[in-house]
Design goal:
Layout (H helix, E strand, L loop, with lengths): L1 E12 L8 E16 L2 E14 L9 E14 L3
Antiparallel strand pairs: 1-2, 2-3, 3-4
């Protein structure tokens, strides 16, 4: 079963010694597949996270950054 996924959220940076935490918008897009046999399944997924960042203090030049994650997992389906 192939699938697509997407999500939106906020990433918070709060390092020790900083004046306050900084929040930046974040989102991701995903593509993957799940291979199921009876109730047990194996899932493979690739996610590309995209976020805005202005440094820990919020005074640095604004940049858009991305991270790519490759994930695998097991699933047990109740139905």
């Amino acid at each position: 079963r192939p699938f697509l996924g997407a999500g939106l959220g906020v990433r918070t940076y709060d390092p020790a010694g900083a004046i306050g935490s900084k929040n930046y918008p974040s989102g991701y897009g995903a593509i993957g597949a799940e291979f199921q046999l009876a109730k047990l399944a194996i899932r493979f997924e690739t996610r590309d996270y995209l976020m805005s960042f202005k440094g820990v203090t919020g005074t640095d030049k604004s940049a858009t950054r991305n991270e790519v994650a490759i994930l695998a997992g097991l699933a047990y389906h109740l139905r």
